[in-house]
Every structure is written in structure tokens, then in C-alpha cells.
Amino acid sequence: MNIRNNDPDQRWMKEAVAEAEKAEDKGEVPIGAVIVKDNKVIGRGHNLRESVQLATSHAEMTAIQGACEAVGSWRLVDCTLYVTLEPCPMCAGAIVQSRIERVVYGAADPKAGCCGTLMNLTDEPRFNHQAYVTSGIMEETCSNLLTSFFRKLRERKKRNKAEFMEEKKG
């Protein structure tokens, strides 16, 4: 179930991008997510894996937790998840388990994407729930956030290595 580019989705993807920027400000990989129900954000999150040293601290997982608390249920019926990067297997599993109706993502993830790129766990007919997927919303913006972050990270590592080598010489 893959649908492409729907202009009204840009409003909520901008909210997800704002969350990704919060992650980047903390030195985290800039991935952000929001969950919308009845035209209102009920859950939001950004990547916190490095900050809290917890493998499950992905943007989607944090947003799902917040949304469940907001509705008072583990079932997120009639909700849409907006996320800047295609969900990984863990997050796709949580999407199915929480019964999110629709997933909208910006950039595809060729290394771990499980909403259509490597596989589509959200459209697996053997599960008792499937989610509709819309991909490529604000794709360039979302991709550029990640590309820029990793470029800066590589430059910083290179600079640190050069400084270390200079100290070693001296």
C-alpha cells in the first residue's frame, strides 16, 4: 500500500523536521517524528539513542509512547505517523503493533528501511494489521538534514584525528 506525494502532509512533515532539528542540536542523528490524530499532534519524538544510550530511543518509538499516553491506549487507531526517515524493522514493528493507520516518511533508508525499501513490514498480509505508506514527502529536506549531519561528523572526526597526530608529533 504505497501512495506518493500528498501536499497536505507537508504541514505535519514540517513538524517532524522540527523534531529532527532538536535531535541534531543534541548531537543526535537528525530524525524526527510526530503522530497526528484528528488534525492534532498527539505524540512527538526525536532520536535520542546516543543521549540515553538506549537502542529503542528512536524518534518513532518516543512519538508512539507519547501518543499512547495521550489517547490512554496502546491502540493508535485513526492516527498517522510522520517521520523524516523511513522506519527501521523495530519501528515498523511498533507501527503494526500499535495499529497506526498510516505512515508518511521523507527520506528512504537503503540500509534499514522497512516501509518499502528493503521490505515492507507495514504491509505484511500475515500480520493482523497493515498501515498505508506515503513516501517522499519533503524528501530533499529530510535527506539534506542527514547528509549534512554525517558530513559534519566526518569532518569533525578527521579534524580530531589530525589534531591528535599533531600532538603525538609534538
Automatic annotation (TrEMBL):
It is an enzyme of class 3 (hydrolase). Zn(2+) binds at residues 58, 88, 91. The keyword Nucleotidyltransferase does not apply. InterPro entries: APOBEC/CMP_deaminase_Zn-bd (IPR016192), CMP_dCMP_dom (IPR002125), Cytidine_deaminase-like (IPR016193), MafB19-deam (IPR058535), tRNA_aden_deaminase (IPR028883). Homodimer. Catalyzes the deamination of adenosine to inosine at the wobble position 34 of tRNA(Arg2). This is tRNA-specific adenosine deaminase. It comes from Alteribacter keqinensis. The lineage of its organism: Bacteria, Bacillati, Bacillota, Bacilli, Bacillales. The gene is tadA.
